[in-house]
Amino acid sequence: MRRILIPALCLLLVGIMAMPILAADKKPKVAVVVKTLTGDVFQLKMAEAARDQAIQLGADATIYQAGGQTAVQRMVQIIEDLIVQQTDVIIISPLDSKAVVPVFRQAKEEGIIIVCMDQVAEGDDYVTFISTDNYAAAALGAEFAKTVLGGKGNVVVIEGAPGSSVGDDRKNGFAENIVKGSQIKVVASQTGLWTNEKAMDATQNILQANPNVDLIFSCSDGMTGGILEAVKLAGKEGKIKVISFDGSSFGIELIKSGSIIADVAQFPIKIGRMSAETGLGVYNKTIDPASLPKFIDSGTKLITSENADASLADAF
Amino acid sequence: MPDSPTEIIRLVNVSKGLYDLNGQTLNRHNLVLSQVNFSLEQGEVHVLLGENGAGKSSLVKMICGAIRPDSGQIFINGKEMTANDPQQALASGVATVSQEFSLCPNLTVAENISLGRTKYNFAGFLDFPAMRALATHQLNRLGAGQIDVNRKVKHLPVAEQQLVEIAKALAANPQVLILDEPTSTLTDNQVEILFRVIHALKDSGVSMIYITHKLKEIFEVGDRVTVLRDGRSMRTVAVAESGNIDDLIQLMIGSKLDNLFNKGKHQVGETALEVLDLKSDPASPALNLTVKQGEIVGVAGIVGAGRTEFIRRIFGIDSYHSGSVTVFGKSLPKGNPQAAIQAGIGFIPEDRKRQGIVPCLAVRENICHVTMRQLSRLGWVSIASRSRLARTYVERLKVMASSLRQEIRYLSGGNQQKAILGKWLSANARILIFDEPTRGIDVITKSAIYRLMVELADRGVAILMISSELQEVVGMSDRVYVMRSNRIAKILAGEEINGETILRYAMGGDEVA
Amino acid sequence: MINRFTSVLKAKEAGIIAWILLVGLVSSILSPNFLTPNNLVNILAQSAVVGIMAIGMTMVIITGGGGIDLSAGSILGISSVVMAMTIIPPELFRDTAAMLVLPNDFWIILKALIFCLGTGAVCGFLNGCMITWAKLPPFIATLSLMAAARGTAAYISAGIPTYGMPTSLVYVGQGSISFIPIPVLVMLALGLIVHLALTRSVFGITLFAVGGNRETARFSGMNVNRLLISVYVLSGVFAAIAGVILSARGNQVHPDAGTGYELSAIGASVIGGTSMMGGAGGIPGAILGAIFMAEVQNVINILNIPVAYMKPVLGGLIVMAVLLDQWHKKRDTGE
């Protein structure tokens, strides 16, 4: 018995020791899938960080983009192709939380590790979801607004595109918390469709109907430029305070120039890096997927004029 | 009751007024068919002969049940037909090979041939092998086994489409087969095979109505001939007894009053238009033509003789392979209507709605379309100058329109034609090409247009006129080019210009004699 | 007086004018903030970008034969990116952070505008070539350019938006002469020129003839291909002008700018009475159509109508406007 056991154990040991060498022969293939890189700095930085981190960890990594804010079908196709190519890890920001479920199931059955970043999918075929807690982050902005306004006043929310969970979380996080324990009223909440031009038009129109707006909450730095132009055109520059969301270097510059009072920061580069580390960790068996929480908060921070300079360093 | 045992179809005193495309009667006084009698016996090939508009197609449509007579009776196998329903005609065993193909271009040959006789297999699905077998069998009968039954019809050359059309009719195993100019697109070899099939069908008891403009064919396949003229059945004779071909032609033309025309002696000037050795492609015959100032030159021929194609090449709408078109000594580039217009040619096309007018625009704009450049200053044309120009020609040509701004589509065909003429006159066209100048135009406007043509010729305009109306060609032309099968069969002048001669050359009577 | 009144009622723009007034009436009852001079000026200003694009689009649709320019929104995007890249020094271009402060250098701005309109013209020329020489259906040709132009815009700008334009350019987008915003003046001036060209120039007459019946136009010696190419070039140039206005108004350039604007422009044309069959339509209607769409958007924002209802309301109004217009036309022709 022992004569069999010892050589067997030896063999096993050698095998375990040889595994990294064998694995090194075959670099893990990592795919970073995002909706679009065009005009979306957040997605761009997040995707690049994920890719660069994966390469640093010794993997082959490529970015795939669906090519639009609504190109759901294209994204599903990309995942199907990745399954065929026997990709090892997919790090993805799903465009639509439902549409990707079937391909996620298929990928999981093929042993592919899926990490969701920024946006979540339904089901539990992904190992974890790493993102800003958008609701909590927006609530952070609401608390700051409450103190600035002294507990009373009229606020406006410029929302993201309808149907986006991220946009809804931010809107609700702000609108629900700002009215708690204060006499602040949300006088209008309209979509800016994530674009500057639409946000500008909407703000202009809202200001026509509500001359006494004290503060505007923008659900994304990508719309804040348009909102500020509308405020300027209405002659309310300085009278209407603006809080933005994202914490991009553009937003921080706006704080420094006094155009906006605060920006709720999220950390796309951190999200990207964490996603790559987690995905490859599960692949290399250094992380036990069973022990992973289903949601990992990548953290948020409220940036104001006080910490703007310090925040610029790790902003995207 | 007409009840001869061998008589398949009998028409008794049928009449039909003018009808529109839906078969609705428009005018009961202007008859398309008038008191026509016609009979078809079992196993005979009965040829229908007549000029364009003599009523051949209407007669055939009536037998198929596509249109209903206003009066008279139709008997098929002694049974009176009542409904105007093609399906009923088919049930009685009538199949048609029409000039306008009834094929669906996006279906395969096999599907087309078995259309209406679709076969299903035990599971209720289309039985494609059976359909293919049927199609192959029918095509083999026509000696056209080389046609791939799996190809879509739209990919076949026209001659093969014609054969498929015939095969489709044969597949119905008809008791009566109507062939409307079946040979117009076929090669000699294919025609020969078709005639063999016709003889075989005849032997097996199928009766056929055969419409043709080629006199030669009457003698090759016909048993009896009925001549139609102006909607009347003139005479039915056995081919064997018909003897002189000129008698048939005489019957077709009759003696017509030509008081519509007041052809004068025109002062003929220098050569305005000269076409030399024009070939549409290397193999096609070379065409030559000249028109002098003040001359009205007619181009006659049966439908499909290549007249419109020839004229379109002269005007530059279509290009050609070789040859030259010269206007007042200046050679025109190929396929460039702008150059032709600049050289002074005006074209009044055959299909008024599609090529002559812009229906949704005002009379004023339609008249100004050629002249606007001359009216313009730095590309701008004032509305006033356009109105002035348009008013001049509306008044001169007596175009009946409620205002210059009325959309031209609401005008009658004759007034549209006058407006188109106005367009070219305003551009000072020195050569006018008329393609079927009076098609679909009432008789009063017709004579007005004829008068205008003569007046223009008197003022030195060279006129080239294509017409399928013999009366018109004879009444108007100083010289006539008779075309047949894409070549010029004969040039007639002076006393030679008469209906009989034109028809003889147009229909190939010279080949028979 | 009565005559003049009935002639207004019979004008082909009567339908869209009625709609603008109807929506205005209902809105001014529902909100006291609608019928204020400021808000009305505001609506006009917001209609300018789509209105300018609709001028070009109307000409394209009038050419008939399925004429349509789906690439207009993408042309807007790529021309404004080209403009930004000409104005902004390369070392600043990729700087996503700063709100740029740029000098008002006349020659640089002029060069940028020429490059911008030139880009629009080149894109339009490509459309025209695909449609005339390669004989592609306009839908396919412009759809492919729509993707190509947007992709190129993203590529040359590395997908990064830029903020800040020279103040003189911003004035073109945000300033007013008397009380009328400059974008509105630009839209009205271009509209007037094109309206006159359509009714009083060789180009206009040719356009309607080609749109009404291409065969007849050819038989009348018109150069159909040259006309089609020039119409698509014009559409591209108008999209580029719309891009200048959009960038100047928003004080920024975004490679995704103008996405979906082609559909708004088509909508404005059609609401304004331009026939998708070609041969009929006009510039006043197209501009009124753009104003109508801006009005509806304004009302939604002013009344704070939840976003979920916005698109159905907009779609429903467009359908109703077009149906009313068709009914109006049918009654006129007595069909």
Helix content of chain A: 40-55%
What structural class is derived from the secondary structure elements of chain B? alpha/beta
Quaternary state, please?
A: heterotrimer
Number of helices of chain B: 20
| Mean model confidence by pLDDT of chain A | 85
Q: What structural class is derived from the secondary structure elements of chain A?
A: alpha/beta
**CATH topology of the largest domain in chain B, what is it called?**
Rossmann fold
Helix content of chain B: 25-40%
Q: Please tell me the overall pLDDT of chain B.
A: 83
In the residues of chain A, how many domains can be counted? 2
Rg of chain B:
25 Å
Strand composition percent of chain A: 15-25%
Biggest chain pair interface? A-C, 41 and 42 residues
Topology:
The complex is a heterotrimer of chains A (316), B (513) and C (335).
Chain A: H1 2-25, E1 29-34, H2 41-56, E2 60-65, H3 72-84, E3 89-92, H4 101-109, E4 113-117, E5 128-131, H5 134-149, E6 152-159, H6 165-178, E7 183-191, H7 196-209, E8 215-218, H8 221-233, E9 241-246, H9 249-256, E10 262-265, H10 268-283, E11 295-297, E12 301-304, H11 308-312
Parallel strand pairs in A: 1-2, 1-3, 3-4, 4-5, 5-11, 6-7, 6-8, 8-9, 9-10
Antiparallel strand pairs in A: 10-12
Helix pairs in contact in A: 2-10, 3-4, 5-6, 7-8
Chain B: E1 7-19, E2 25-41, E3 45-49, H1 56-64, E4 71-76, E5 79-80, H2 86-91, E6 94-97, H3 109-113, H4 128-141, H5 158-171, E7 176-180, H6 188-203, E8 207-211, H7 215-221, E9 224-229, E10 232-238, H8 239-242, H9 245-253, E11 271-279, E12 287-292, E13 296-300, H10 307-315, E14 322-327, E15 330-331, H11 337-342, E16 345-348, H12 352-356, H13 363-368, H14 372-375, H15 383-396, H16 413-426, E17 431-435, H17 443-458, E18 462-466, H18 470-476, E19 479-484, E20 487-493, H19 499-506, H20 509-512
Parallel strand pairs in B: 3-8, 3-9, 6-7, 7-8, 13-18, 13-19, 16-17, 17-18
Antiparallel strand pairs in B: 1-2, 1-4, 4-5, 9-10, 11-12, 11-14, 14-15, 19-20
Helix pairs in contact in B: 4-5, 9-19, 15-16
Chain C: H1 2-10, H2 14-30, H3 37-62, H4 72-87, H5 90-93, H6 106-132, H7 138-156, E1 162-163, H8 167-174, E2 176-177, E3 180-181, H9 182-200, H10 202-212, H11 214-219, H12 224-250, E4 252-253, H13 261-271, H14 283-302, H15 307-333
Antiparallel strand pairs in C: 1-4, 2-3
